[in-house]
Amino acid sequence: MASVAFIGLGVMGAPMAGHLASAGHDVRVYNRGAVKSEQWAREHSGAVAATPFAAAAGANTVFICVGNDDDVRQVVVGPDGVLPALDPGATIVDHTTASALLARELSTIAATRGVGFVDAPVSGGQAGAVNGTLTIMCGGDPAVFAGVAPLMSAYSRSCTLLGPSGSGQLTKMVNQIAIAGLLQGLAEALDFAMRAGLDLDTVIDVIGKGAAGSWQLDNRASTMVRGEFDFGFAVEWMRKDLGICIEEAQRYGAELAITKAIDGFYAEIVAMGGARWDTSSLIRRLGASG
């Protein structure tokens, strides 16, 4: 049994922390809104802390799953942040989708106190968090990663070290670039099928057995044509992620023409009132879906 802290109990963090508690670990949680912390404590075996510092005191590992770079930096090194509470040899694992620059910055700062840092963004959405089947992309020191990988197995089906600090975040960018393109392609394909009067259930089944098959097709195509967009990963979150991708691409001279266009399409979805619709809502702007 490990003594761990979990900071951030949103749609992803709450079930992830729950899996750690179910695995028998001693879990202390902190959330900026106390109501979620109290609700989590009622549902799981664990304790609620009033600050990130209090949650981290005495913990071997601190998991973070919050909103953006500023939120992560505040949790780690801000007033009442977790870093001063940790003993040398402890590890911070950041599951937030954030920038690679931040991962490198915080890894360096943590190292001055003898604390490990692993950037570990996840893929799999709310369902993956609830079912404990997330894919985790990690960056950091191999020895530090080896120490925390068994803990992450409580809520993942795949947990891989990709390289030094920042590599996990860079790989998550690759993931989001690919997903954006897949969803736009799927939206256009389904819109075409609807306008052509095809039997959509049969079309989806048939193309899913060929080269067009994908997780998005299997899990989102039928809901897209019904105009159902309430599946956890919101458009506003995807726009945040794509903004990180586009900014990072400039450093490498990588052309993200399609990604930039799709980010613009998501801006249209936001203007339609769909900031909290899920990312498959790209089809809505094409007009043929429910």
What does this structure look like?
With 290 residues, the protein is of the alpha/beta class. The chain folds into two domains: 3-163, Rossmann fold; 170-286, Orthogonal Bundle (N-(1-d-carboxylethyl)-l-norvaline Dehydrogenase, domain 2). 50% of the residues lie in helices and 14% in strands. Helix 8 (167-195) packs across helix 10 (215-225), helix 8 (167-195) crosses helix 12 (257-271) and helix 11 (235-252) runs antiparallel to helix 12 (257-271). It is globular, with a radius of gyration of 20 Å. The model has no long low-confidence stretch (mean pLDDT 96).
List the helices and strands and how they pair.
Layout lengths: L2 E5 L5 H10 L3 E5 L3 H10 L3 E2 L3 H5 L4 E4 L4 H9 L13 E4 L5 H12 L4 E4 L2 E2 L1 H7 L2 E6 L2 H11 L3 E8 L3 H29 L4 H9 L6 H11 L9 H18 L4 H15 L19
Parallel strand pairs: 1-2, 1-4, 2-3, 4-5, 5-6, 8-9
Antiparallel strand pairs: 7-8
Helix pairs in contact: 8-10, 8-11, 8-12, 9-10, 11-12
